[in-house]
Each structure stands twice: as structure tokens, then as C-alpha cells.
Amino acid sequence: MSSFTETGLVKKLFDLNQSQQSIQTLSLWLIHHRKHHSIIVKTWLKELQRAPAAKKLTFMYLANDVIQNSKKKGPEFGREFEHVLVKAFKNVAQSSPEPKTINSLNRILGIWCDRGVYEEPKIKEYSTALNGTETIPRVEVNGSDKKRKGDSSSAAESEGAKKPRPATVSAEKKAKSEVVEVNGKVETHITLSPHQPDGDPPEPEDLIKVILDLENSASSDAVVRERIASLKPEVSELAALDKLEDKEAAMKLAADVNDAIKILNDYNARLAVEMDDRKKLTTMLRDFLREQQELQQQAENRLAEYQNKLSKIKEVQKEVRNHMNNLPDLTSLPDVTGGLAPLPSAGDLFNAHHH
């Protein structure tokens, strides 16, 4: 994961576009660097206010994604955005937005209200800043709120309602669920506008911890495996029963069998836990790899951009040098004063005037 700098954040916000991948990638990066939530939100607001009107909705989509997807990591972003959203909605409203932009933002407000992202009084403040009225838009999935032509938020929400979301995304207690039909089967989903990420990439330290824990997994326990390998053959062979000659031998075999069962039950339970941990690690590695591939692509694009910029600067440098070489050397020019007397000083002129 690339390190956080304010300059880097400004660059990422400048490169942000309305595609789901662009919003998702930056949202994941911001959530990963949530310890910088204060400067992130301040910079987001500053760049939103500078952004052209056509791009302001994309900034709001990014904020919505970060606010909703960061809740399971902590409340930092929700609280920080809460203080600047009135300014943000006012700024969008004052930029002469298209009606579809207002409709998309009202849809976000309705979703926040239905899912309890913010308390109703706060939603009313945001609605007043955007619409000049406290009326809170309501979102209907199966009702009259259909997909509107040209409404990107509505389109994204409708698309999200048709596609099943990953099982790792669970509804939080305050969130309102939406009942939708998927392939003829009624399911309950929590969907975000304009998209839902596949899964949050793990923190590097969390990934390292899981890997280190697996070094002490059941399959690595040579001591227990040796105990199992050294179990008497009689405990797993029915033919051994035919060789029992007295009750004492039968009781001894029963004790050995019970011990073997206990050892195997305990070890099998540990193996089951290990299997779940390895599945979890596989998912974490997949999400981590996906994020690294996205960041690598960003880095490659940025490298190409700056290499091109460097090439242009070098061309300018070359032209400046050529221009400097063609300029005359003033030190080698002849003395144009021709031995004339120096000009009089201000004092000389003053004295001459009085005489």
C-alpha cells in the first residue's frame, strides 16, 4: 500500500473519474489510511470546491462510499464528514447542477436516512443545504422510484439491486435492508451507491499475523502427528477383537481406543480450524493482490505521465542552453563610452544650478 501524503491525495482526487473502479480504488486507499481522516476530509472538501460542476457528483459518490464502507473499520470518517457535508452540499447546489445531479444526491440522502448512516436532523440539514427544504427523500426499491434515464446514481443502485452482493458484506444493525429479487429468488441485500467493493484489502500487519499464526497450525504439529503414527494397530483393526482372551485385555484395548479417539478428535478439530484460517488467508491474499495490482497500474500510469513531463522539460532545457549559447557575450563588446567624461553627479548638478 502506497504511503500517504497530502500531495498524493490531491493527485488521486484530480485523477478521480466517475467509473466504479476509480471510485472503489480511491475509496479503499482512503480507508486504508484512515488514521489521516482529518486531513483527508479537509482536502476532499477543498478539492470538491475547486472541481468543475460536472465532477462534483463523483466527489460525493466517493464520500458516500468511504462513509459507508469504513464503518466496520471505525467511525472516524463518518464523524469527520459529518462536519463538512453541509458546506459540500451547498457548494454543489451553488454550482448550477443539472437536475439529474440533484436527483442523484437526493437519492444518497434517502439511503443515508433509511440505513441510519446519519441521524434524521443531520439529514435535514444536508437536504436544506442542497434543496432549500428539510424534506428528506425516500428511497423505494420495489415502488415507484424506478431507474431514471440519465440518473447515474439511480442506475447504479438499480444495478446493485439486481446483482447479488458478496457474502462478506453484512447489514449493520442501523442499516435498513432492501428486499430484491435475484434470479427468481427473494433475497435481502445492503447495496451502496454507486457500487459495492468485492472486499476490503487487509492491513499488512493483519495479513502477516495470519501467516505467522499458520506456522503453528495443526498440520505443522510434528509431535501430535508422531503420537498418532505411534498408535497401536489394534485400536483401528476389528480383527484385534478376535484376539482378546480375557476381560482385562478387553478393558486395556478399550482404554487405548478411547485415548486414540480423543487424540484424533482434538487433532481433527484443530485441522478444521486451520482449514478455515487458510480459506480466510486465501481471501485476504486475493483482496490484497487485487489492490496491489490496481495500485501498480496507477503507479505505472503515473510513471509514464511523469516520464513524458520530464522529456518535455529536458527539451525546454536543451532549447534554453542553445539560446544562451547564441546570445552575445557582453564582456567581449567594445567600450562604447569612447573615453567620454563621466556624467555629473546629483551634487554637481545642484551646485551648478545655484552658480
Automatic annotation (TrEMBL):
Record-linked CDD domains: CID_RPRD1
Domain CID: 1-134
Region (Disordered): 137-179
Record-level GO BP terms: mRNA 3'-end processing
Gene3D superfamilies the record matches: 1.25.40.90, 6.10.250.2560
PROSITE patterns, sorted: CID (PS51391)
PANTHER family reported in the protein's UniProt record: CID DOMAIN-CONTAINING PROTEIN-RELATED, CYCLIN-DEPENDENT KINASE INHIBITOR-RELATED PROTEIN
Superkingdom classification of source: Eukaryota
The keyword Disulfide bond belongs to this UniProt entry's keyword annotation: no
Protein's UniProt keywords contain Transmembrane: no
GO MF entry, a single one: RNA polymerase II complex binding
Entry coiled-coil feature ranges: 278-326
Protein name: CID domain-containing protein
Pfam families in alphabetical order: CID, CREPT
